[in-house]
Amino acid sequence: MIEQKCGTCGSSDIVRDIKISSGKGIIGLVYFNPIIFTAREELLSDLCRQCGTVVRMHVENTDRKWMTKF
Question: If residue 58 lies in a helix (H) or strand (E), which one and from where to where?
């Protein structure tokens, strides 16, 4: 894995794949699911421990039929 550095402070002390939650369920990107019509792929973030900057937001599974219009 390539070493990730914070664009704000330059630190490489990054915590990876932190789950994001609203308290009412997962926050994620919506995709088409043939069984239940739509579902969400959980959004994850990487955080710099030194300055608190969210360095990256991403999903684990990119092989989805993403919903871009509702």
Answer: strand 54-59
